[in-house]
Amino acid sequence: MKALKIVGIAVVVYVGIVVAFESLIGYFQPAAGAILVITTFDGDGTAHDRVVSRLESDGQLYVAANHWPRAWYRRALEHPEVQATLDGEKGSYQAVPVTGAEHDRVDGENSLPVFFRILTGFPPRYLVRLDPR
Description:
By secondary structure, the chain is an alpha+beta fold. The longest helix has 23 residues. Helix content is about 35%, strand content about 35%. It has four helices and six strands.
């Protein structure tokens, strides 16, 4: 019984760490280097900006949903005409979900550190290719 209690406490502490990390990620977003701001739109045309990490593979531009909160990803799937601000320049893109061999290749080229995966609670990673419009 005591071992079960210890495991239960450890699980609650771990979930608390994941929730705290995911909650603070918006505050401590990366500010330089390999980032871009993706603008997605909801059903009534309201724009939503989100800072995401940019990935590149074979001359193509990708972004990844690496966290449990992923409203931007769902909006991009529902309304794939998105905008991205990259190096200070805004452009229009078509968001294309990436699956299969392309997903495996891009994910393998841009793998996440184990420590990051632990801190985020091992969410599934979804990729979107941004094709210029």
